[in-house]
Each structure stands twice: as C-alpha cells, then as structure tokens.
Amino acid sequence: MNKNKNKWLSLLCDYGLLVVLILIILIVSLLSKEFMTVDNMTNILRQSAVIGIMAIGVTVVILAGHIDLSIGSTVSLAGVIVMSFVNNYKMDWTGMILAILAGGLVGLVNGLIIAVINGRTCDSFIITFGMQTAVAAVALIYSGGKYMSGTGGGVHSLLGKGYLPIFFFLFFAVVLFLVMRYTPFGRTVYFMGANTKAAKMSGVNIKFYTTMLFVIAGVMASTASVILSSRVNAASPTSGKGYELDAIAAVVVGGTSLTGGKGGIFKTVLGVVIIGVLGNALNVMNVTTYPQMIIRGFIIIIAVVLDVSGNKLKNSGVN
Amino acid sequence: MESYALEMIDIVKNFPGVKALDNVTLKVKKGEVHAIIGENGAGKSTLMKVLNGVYQADSGSIRIEGQEVKIGNINTAKSLGISFVFQEINLVPTLSVVENFYLGELLKNKFHMIDWHTMTRNVKEALEKINFTLDPKRRVLELTVAEKQMIEIARAVSRNAKIIVMDEPTSSLSENEVEKLFAIIRTLREQGITIIYISHKLDEIFEICDAATVIRDGKTIETRRVKDYTEDLMIEQMVGRSVTMEFPQRTSKPGEVIFSAADICRKNKIYHVDLELRRGEVLGLAGLVGAGRTELCETIIGAEKMEAGEIRIFGKKTKISNTRQAKHNSIGMVTEERKETGLALDFSVKQNIVITNLPKVAWKGIWLNAGKEDRAAGEYIEELNIKTPGMNQKTMFLSGGNQQKVVIAKWLFSDVDILILDEPTRGIDVGAKFEIYQLINKLAEQGKAILMISSEMNEIIGMSDRIIVMHNGHKKGELEKDMISAENVMRLAVDTEEE
Fold it and tell me: For the ABC transporter domain, which residue ranges apply (chain B) (predicted)?
C-alpha cells in the first residue's frame, strides 16, 4: 500500500510536468478556439526552436554537473558576426561558419579554464558568468553597438523560413539524444555528473571531457543564433541577452537535475515545449507580460522542488 | 603516596560488530607526561573520545583527582580542566589569534563593543606563560602548524587546564619545532599540568615521557615508568599476539617485474620512493596512518602531480600524467573511499562495472550495445559473487563488501595487469573480507601484480609476498617473505631513528 503510494509519487515527480503540459493544453483549448490550431502550434515550436537548440546544448553541460551562463552572449556575438558578413560582403557561408566557430571558441575558452583549475559547479557558474560579460562586450565592439537589419539574400536567409527552425531543433535534439544515450562519450558525461571523483579514478580524462562539454554548448548556442538571425532577418549585439536563463529554465523544467548525472535531452525537449506552450497559452488568454513572468518564475521553482523531493523519495522509499 | 590526576577504570565501548574498548584502564599521575601507545586502531582515539565526551562509555568510570565524573560532552570535559590538542587543528584559519583564543566568548568593554585591548593583552600573557612569542593579531592561516599548536596549548593553559591531551603533536613538525614543543611540555610539567601524550614515535616517548601505557586490541597491556621500558619491549607489547586469523593460501609464485618506479617524489608528500612489482605477487604497503601510502599510489596513477621520478611498465619507460594514461598502461586503483571515489552510487551495478572500458561493450567502440553490457556485467557479478537483486540495482543499496567487489570488477573489466588496492577490506564484515582475500589470491594466480595498502597488521602480514614500509613519505624499508613479521613491520613503521 505504502509502496504503491511511493511509486505513484515518484512517477508524479518524473512526469508531473508532462501532466501539467497536457492539462494546460486541454484547459486553454477549451477556453480559446485560436489555441488548438495547426498554425498556432507550429508558431509555438518555431518560437521555441532557438531557445530549444541552446537548451539541448547546455543540457550536456548540466548533466556533467556544470553550468554555462555565457551562451546568451554567444547568441548575440554569433548573430552580429553572421549578419555583418551577409550584409557587407554577401558571404553568407563564411559568415555562418565563422559565427558557429566563434561559439565553439567561447566554449573552448570556458572549458579550458574550468578544466585547468579542476573547477566544480560553483566555479563554472562564476567563470561563465564572467565570460558572459566579456563576450557581450565583444559583440558590442564588433558591431559598434548597432542594430543590423538584414539586407537579405543567400542561404542564410532561408534557414529561418517555415518549418526549418523546427526541423533543426528536432534534428539536433535527436543527434544529441543518441550521442548521450548510446555512445561511450555520453555515458561518461553522465558518470562524471554523478560522481566526478569516481570518474577520475576510473580513468576518465576529466579535463578533456570538461572542455568538450563547453564547446558543445557554445556551438549549439551559435547555431541557434544563426537560425534566429535568419528568422527575424536582423541581429543586434544584445539579441541573446537573458536567453541563457530561458534555456536553463527549460532544462530544469524538463527535469534534468542541476547537480548533474540525472536527466536527458528528451526531457529538455519536453521542457522547451512546456515553456513555449505555457507562454503562448498565457498570451492567448490575454495575460500581460508581468504576471506571465511571475507564473514562469514559479514554474521553474516548482520544477526544482519536484526534482529534489523526488530524489529523496527514490533514495529512501522504494527498495 | 602520589595522587592520580586522571583515572579511567574498566572502560568498555562497543560499536556494532566490534568491541572497540574492552576494559581499558588508564591511570595518570598528577604532573606527569604520560604516553599512550598502540597500533592503528588499537583504541587510543576511541579512549580519548570517551574522555572528551564525544562517545559515552558502555561501562566503567572516570575519576579526576579522585572525584568520579560523568563527561557528557566536550564542554563538560573543558569545565573539568581537560583540554585537547588534536592532529587536526581546531582553529578558524581566517580569524586572528586573538579571535581564536576567545572564539564564541569575545570580551566586551563598557560600551558593549569588543574589547580588543584587554583580549590582546591577555593572549600575550598566555603565550608568555608557555615561553612563546607571537603577534596575537596575526591571522591563523599565516601560521605554521607548530605555531598553531602552541596557540592551542596556550589557550588550554589560559583556561586553567589541568590535563592536556596531545594527539600526535609532532606529526608535522620539523626537528627544531619538536625541540621547542618539548621545552614547552617541560614548562607545563613544572607548573603541575598533567599531559597525556599520544604518539607513534618511540624515541620521543623515551625523551619526554615519564610513564607509558600500551594499548592493543582495545585492551590495556601494561603501564610502566618509561625508564623501566625498552624499545623492544614496547614494540613487542604493541604487536603482541601471534597472527591467528586464517588467510587463504595462494599457490602463485612471483614472476617477472612488470612495474617499477624509481625515485618517485610528490611535493611535500612523497620523497624518493622506489618500488618493483612482479607478476603474480601481492606487495604490501605498510605504514602508520599518514605515512604517505595512498599519496604514493595517487602519484603513480597520475591522479596527483609527480614532481620527479621514473615509471617503467613491462620494462618500458612510461609517462603517466593522468588517470586515463594509467588505465591505458594497465594500472588501476581501487580507492579507500569507495563511496566517494570508487562508485557513482546513483548508477547501477552494471553501469559502474563497464565505465572503465565502455568501447569494449560498444559496436565498433562507438555505439553502446545493451546486450554486451548485460553479458559483461553478468559475468563479473557471477565471477565475483556480487550479491545484488539484479545488475540494474543502484550501487548505493549494496552492502560494503559487495560495493567493494563492484569496484574491483570495474578494473577486472578494463583488464589491467597492475592493480592497486587501498585498504581493500575497510568497513567490510568478516565473511566478505575472506571472500576479498580469496579474490586477491585468484587475481595474483591469474598473473596480475597487486599492490595492497593496508593498516591492518594481520591482513598485510597474512596476504603479502613482500612488504614495503613507509614513514613520513619515505620508504623506510622492504621486507622479503622470510623477514615478514609484525615486529619487523612495526619497527620500521614507528620512527625510532633519525632519517
């Protein structure tokens, strides 16, 4: 009896948010006719794609027990890089490649610093926070602080069209899902997150892995930025400001633990969709911006509470 | 008739499964320096924890200057005039000497502000009382270990301590500092303060102590005046027993040398250690706690930086700068703290076993194959007789012995030839211990070279083909099979001569 109750509780902690998502969809679709339309649903996914790509990238970092706060600034930087090449030189491919490499470079610097000092979560928090400020400034210097409106043309302008952002989001999600679940690399990242010292003593090259994680997060952020700049056909040196928190919120809401080792890409996709649907639902119901922010804030807090209490339950009860 | 400052009579303390103290009696005369000696785990620390109220004795009585007392916690001990100077210094590093002196009871002046002036003057006086000069405004983290000890001692004296317990006070002091400490101890003795001196260093005991009590296996062996003791007698009493525990027999003969390390140094920890390891042998690494055995092994596997030295594996000079390189060169280490550094407790038995060699259970080394993982894990669970409801059970739910087997299985799975075992049976019940011994023998018979750290005298004598004894980061000596005895190991492990 008690055992059964625990089982239900732990299921609720695992999939509670999915239930919440379905409830939101049901209620709002009853209240509003515009909500449950193909157009609106596609729109939600299109809007979520950029945060989504960032979120799956940072999921990998979080699974290993680290955090990356610099990805928002990376979005800003990569955006102005690609847009400047498209506008000024009509070199869309060069621009896109350089933008993505810039993201990789930011990740590399993050990763190397944290690897060299054998940093733990709190260290990566501060280091990537510093990086966030520095990279934001680089974006401002590079662009001269100017907003860039796209003059169009080339492959770059196509990437954000129609279903393509959704396609890219799902594509990268599937790839990273497979990498994390079925490759030695992915398994090692999980193990690192669960117990870094044990991973080290098991012969894992922690420095190499730490570096790679941040490179992945950086590349995913700059890729997201290329798609974003195409979709809105513009770039601003502050376009990614605050995006890192939206991405991390999606990871947490999805149920990946900030302490590392637990969670996954699929959960993050779920988290991205929940936050997207919730925002849209609130819009449809004419809830204004500030109350929306309160609701979003509480969703994140509830997600963490569920995660922590769910773990306690599992480690005490069942078995 | 002389009076006793402290009497602990027939103290018994049981922990689940062990009798840590079995009718220990300690009688310390007023104003003497009294040594307590014994092997690792003989019961010295437990006895002191009974004295300071951390543990409550199951039976027995404590008398201070003839008065029977109950010591419920450390504050009672303090108010009875008993002070402790521990190996780990109990000072707050970021605060000044003065603040540490008055920690939690800062003096206030008439304006209810902190009275720095009076406090600083008092601290100066207290330090002078033990003939020690130091600026009381300095922060503790700038001080040497010796200076910190002096502060602890001065603090104890200023609080009218009648008995000061010093636990391994010289373990990290230089020769010069030891002399200073001894001078202070003599000053204290003249002032009529009783000192209980716990140490492994017999020469110090002969120099500074008046009486000594030997404790072994939780029992008092004897108390004598130090002048009536000889070094040999002390060692004999510390070791005492003949080794009675049964260890499984091993048939393997040591083969060729597959690992050798020369002149290994690690900053402030390990100094010029050489060792050779043969196929099919168990090399014991003995020494007292803090001798640098774990530190040496961490250096060998690249977990800590090696300052100097050369490692040869299968005769080939090899550079190992991280644990991954160690693994690729066929070295694995089963760590002492299996929950901290051996296992991911949240992960299953299976996932923990295969982590050391994931490509082996992956298609083309890149795509994990669930079937292969299951087979590999199943094989080791059976071979090592790991008791678990299933391979998908989280390791946190396993018993200590079975957890240890999982850690060993990890290294067998990665097929290392050189296996380092750091305290392989610590915290494991007797039945599981025997199984681990059998497993070690089996591995040696399969041709693995095993380096085993152990603080249990029986175990290291019963299991080793050869023993290296360490002391203070140095290799103190090496004992071939026919020279192995508890006395010989202990003689090398305790510091009886200058290095």
Answer: 6-242, 252-497
In this complex, how many residue pairs, one in chain A and one in chain B, have their CB atoms less than 8 Å apart?
79
Higher local confidence (pLDDT), B299 or B201: B299
Q: What is the reported pTM?
A: 0.79
Interface predicted TM-score of the whole assembly (ipTM), two decimals: 0.87
If asked whether residues B329 and B191 sit together in one domain, one would say no
At residue A43, what is the residue type? N
Most A CBs within 10 Å, among B348, B349, B358, to test the A interface: B358
CB contact under 8 A, B327 and A261: no
Cβ distance B368 to A183 less than 8 Å, yes or no, reads: yes
Q: Are residues B358 and B444 in the same domain?
A: yes
- A-chain residues within 8 Å CB-CB of B365? 184
Judge: B344–A261 Cβ closer than 8 Å, yes or no: yes
What is the predicted pLDDT for the residue at A13? 67
Residue ranges making up the domain that contains B143: 4-239
CATH class of the domain defined by A2-316:
mainly alpha
Q: What residues does each domain of chain A span?
A: 2-316
Residue range A67-97, pLDDT digits in tens: 999 999 999 999 999 999 999 988 899 999 9
Q: Is B111 on the interface with A (CB under 8 A)?
A: no
pLDDT at A316: 58
| Last-in-domain residue among B206, B239, B272 | B239
> In this complex, is the C-beta atom of B358 within 8 Å of any C-beta atom belonging to chain A?
yes
